[in-house]
Amino acid sequence: MKQNTKYNIKSNLKRLFTYRLCLIGFKRKGFDRIFSHNLGEEAGVTAEQVRKDFSFFKIRGNKKGGYQINDLLRAIDEVFKYQHNQHVVIVGMGNIGRALVQYKRFLLRKMIIVASFDIDPSKQSRRWGIPVLPLEMLDDIIKKFHVKVAIIAVPEISAQDVLDRLIDLGIKGFLNFAPVMLKTPENIIVNNINLCDELESVIYYTEKVIE
Predict the structure, then answer these.
(1) Which fold has domain 11-79?
(2) pTM for this model (two decimals)
(3) Residues in Cβ contact with 5 at an 8 Å cutoff, skipping those fewer than 6 apart
(4) What pLDDT does 5 receive?
(5) Strands (E), 35-145
(6) Looking at residue 79, what is its pLDDT?
(7) What is the pLDDT of residue 7?
(8) Where are the domains of the chain?
(9) Which residues of the chain have pLDDT under 70?
(10) Which among 49, 73, 78, 177 is least buried, having the fewest CB atoms inside 10 angstroms?
């Protein structure tokens, strides 16, 4: 049975991203060890919250000696499997698709966009560092690179059809930039990114602060 999907990243996972950024910052400043209260203060949470989050992800430390920053970064990498390249495809080479394939930080996190796809033949003839292919080649690329995650950056009218096709080809997780709620089976993960909603929420809270 298909249902509307809007996958909300759990708060502790979001905080783990924040902890990683803070740890990288501490490392750049020359620190090699840190305590939970230092990290919590930098991340805007309590020391207890830091310890709870690390415990949830089975990241261990020493109450008296604190945490080795390099050990923490390796443990976080292990949570996200960054020791292995994660192959991803993009469907849709409009403005968002082109921006994403040129985003260099994906490579730093070992997320490799192996190919992009578009129905427009003129876009297929161009390259932005990766091949831009017709949709007919989706199956070949997904099988060749064992792809399990795709980015959807197509117009909303096409998004559901694209998602259904990708699910049939074995894709299990999606980052969806199309401004539409997609319907999927229960075992499929879709994280919806609506840029207008995100900006509008910032504007809303900004106006509240100004008031």
Answers:
(1) Arc Repressor Mutant, subunit A (1.10.10)
(2) 0.81
(3) 181, 182, 183, 184, 188, 189, 190, 192
(4) 61
(5) 67-68, 86-91, 111-117, 132-133
(6) 87
(7) 56
(8) 11-79, 84-198
(9) 1-9, 62-63, 82-83, 211
(10) 78
CA torsion sign for 142, 144, 148, 149 is negative
Instruction: Show Cβ contacts of residue 119 under 8 Å, excluding neighbours closer than 6 positions.
Output: 134, 135
CA distance 51 to 58: 10
Give the C-alpha distances (Å, rounded to integers) separating 108 from 54, 73, 74, 84, 201. 23, 14, 14, 12, 29
CATH assignment, 84-198: 3.40.50.720
pLDDT value of residue 168: 96
Q: What are phi and psi of 75, to 5 degrees?
A: -65, -40
Per-residue pLDDT, 3: 61
DSSP bridge partners of 62: 66
In this prediction, residue 132 carries a pLDDT of 93
